[in-house]
UniProtKB/TrEMBL annotation:
Source organism per UniProt: Aphanomyces astaci (Crayfish plague agent)
Keyword hit for Phosphoprotein: no
Endoplasmic reticulum recorded as keyword: no
UniProt name for this protein: Hydroxyacylglutathione hydrolase C-terminal domain-containing protein
GO molecular function: hydroxyacylglutathione hydrolase activity; metal ion binding
Family annotation (InterPro entries): HAGH_C, RibonucZ/Hydroxyglut_hydro
Swiss-Prot/TrEMBL keywords: Hydrolase, Metal-binding, Zinc
Domain Hydroxyacylglutathione hydrolase C-terminal span(s) in chain numbering: 1-74
Length: 82
């Protein structure tokens, strides 16, 4: 799921950890807010050092491409791709 992927990208992000914990007690995490997405969605955080480190690049286009590739294969039995 999206939050588990976000946690794999940014395991030290407290907003992601809090939302992941919250999501375990609620049947749906939608709707969300833009503010929440800016804090927890790696695709909206391509300029953050932790996301850039995960992607191995500071170039926003490259970071986005790496995130998309990793997300596409995330949870397909191979575990979080790094």
């Amino acid at each position: 799921n999206n939050l588990k992927f976000a946690a794999a990208v940014e395991p030290e992000n407290p907003a992601i950890q809090a939302k992941l914990h919250w999501s375990q007690s609620t049947p749906s995490t939608i709707p969300s807010t833009i503010a929440s997405e800016l804090d927890t969605n790696p695709f909206m955080r391509v300029d953050h050092p932790a996301v850039q480190k995960y992607a191995g690049s500071a170039d926003p286009v490259t970071v986005m491409a790496v995130l998309r590739e990793k997300k596409n294969s995330f949870g397909l039995g191979a575990g979080p791709a790094k």
